[in-house]
Amino acid sequence: MPATGQSHIRIARPSRDLASAEDFWVGGLGLSVLFRSESAGQPDKHDLLMVGWPDASWHLELVHDATVEPRPTEEDLLVVYLDEQVPQTLISRLEAHGGKRVQARNPYWDTWGTSIEDPDGYRLVLSTRNWTNS
Which fold has domain 9-64? Predict the structure, then answer.
């Protein structure tokens, strides 16, 4: 079957600390834990956390592997289009759960949203725009 607009997307990233990542993405943004696996010290296994909204066609896979260090840049963005102003309560909750508000490298995102760095240094952009006018 070819890839289509209905194909599910998994965004996979390394994480230094899955507990901190879970606190940010679940406690802060409000995603759900979709799957969790612990390696229990088994060789060639990794601790894994998948988070997302259960009805979404994407999810975020966070993997802890002691040999792989996250290397995010200022342009590694996960953008969520809110189609409304970014609630200050959401920004505060993300900060309380390990996020750090940052200035975007591209001023477009400061004009049309708010950038928050997760505990691993990756950036979440909460955009005031909707997908169709972005």
Answer: 2,3-Dihydroxybiphenyl 1,2-Dioxygenase; domain 1 (3.10.180)
